[in-house]
């Protein structure tokens, strides 16, 4: 496991910061690979390639029309980072299907440029999945007593 500093995700809040971060990225730019978005490649292709499951939590987005309606296209490496650097973001290897909850938690957060997960799409997704799960745990801990109180009230306790 990486050290605690390298697991701290960052939110880059300005284009100059995004440009400096992008310049630090080393190794293969896996997010540039695959088909580019076009009339022949789009959301349906991304959805089918993922077997209809969220890239981060594996929720079955084909299980119900509600889950499907709440699914989103996820730019694994955020658009804000790539567009600030003049890089196309809608390449097949940078796109995934995602549930709305995971997309909201991941947002524009990124692992540090020095983190080894940047070396491959699989490693990057794994690290982002860990980050999303950590965010979910923090939310659970933050709201646990409130949810318990509401459920007790509903149960007449």
Structure description:
It contains six helices and four strands; from the N terminus they run βαααβαβαβα. The chain is mainly alpha-helical and about 160 residues long. The chain has one domain (about 10-110, about 120-155). The strands form two sheets. Strands 1-4 form a two-stranded antiparallel sheet. Strands 2-3 form a two-stranded antiparallel sheet. It is globular, with a radius of gyration of 18 Å. The model is unreliable at about 1-5 (pLDDT under 50).
Structural class: mainly alpha
Oligomeric state of this protein: single chain
- The fraction of residues in strands falls at 5-15%
Task: Give the tally of β-strands.
Answer: 4
Strand arrangement in the largest pleated sheet: 1-4
Overall residue-averaged pLDDT value: 91
Alpha plus pi helix count: 6
H/E series, N to C? EHHHEHEHEH
User: In one word, what is the shape?
Assistant: globular
Q: How many discrete structural domains?
A: 1
Helix percentage range: 40-55%
Estimated radius of gyration: 18 Å
Largest sheet: 2 strands, antiparallel
End-to-end separation in angstroms reads 44 Å
The low-confidence parts are 1-6
